[in-house]
Amino acid sequence: MGKTLERLSLTALGACMVGMMGVIVVQVACSALDVNPVVAFDRAWALVGTAITLNSLLDLQWHLLVITGLLPAGLVWLTDSHVRVDFLYQTLGSRTQTRINLAGNLLFAAPFLALALPAAWNFTARAWRADEGSSNGGLADLWLIKAMLPLGLALLAVAVLVETWRLLRGVR
User: Of 26, 81, 94, 120, which sits 20 to 30 A from 158 (CA to CA)?
Assistant: First the structure.
């Protein structure tokens, strides 16, 4: 089950990356050809409103970048695939590494997430209440994208919790 979920997550991440590259190509081509709006609709659609413009494509690039960077953070944490900058860490014994990881989770990750999650939720809720959209012809319904922040942080918090529990069991 775990490997299947990991494979699905990585496939979804890859699809977002391909989507982001496609958006960049379309935005650059339409900009070079001076095509704006790219597509117009008779009725408003979620996220794009009544038209896909060069600005909405530019906004979409940034939002897809955030999604591809933030949502997999929990998976990266759980698989211990993140970058370690401490060259000394490798030379330490597994028991010491476990203690360092546990201390990092409890002293840094947990307080950060305890502060960031409520702030991210309020950030998204404020965008929802205000029906926030881009003021420069970009994306509409920005709460959809902003909802990725609390979602990604919540997934990371679950990963940190699971990892902390595993580390606590290993310290004994």
Answer: 94
Cis peptide before 72 (omega within 30 of 0): no
Joined together, the tokens standing for residue 9 give 């997550």
CB 144 within 8 A of CB 167: no
The answer to whether residues 104 and 89 touch, using CB atoms and an 8 Å cutoff, is: no
Residue with tokens 């940190």: 160
Cis, bond preceding 150 (omega within 30 deg of 0): no
| 54-70 and 2-32 helices, crossing angle to 10° | 160
Summarize pLDDT for 111-160 with one digit per residue, the tens.
999 999 999 999 999 988 998 877 777 777 778 888 889 999 999 999 99
Name the residue with tokens 């991440």.
13
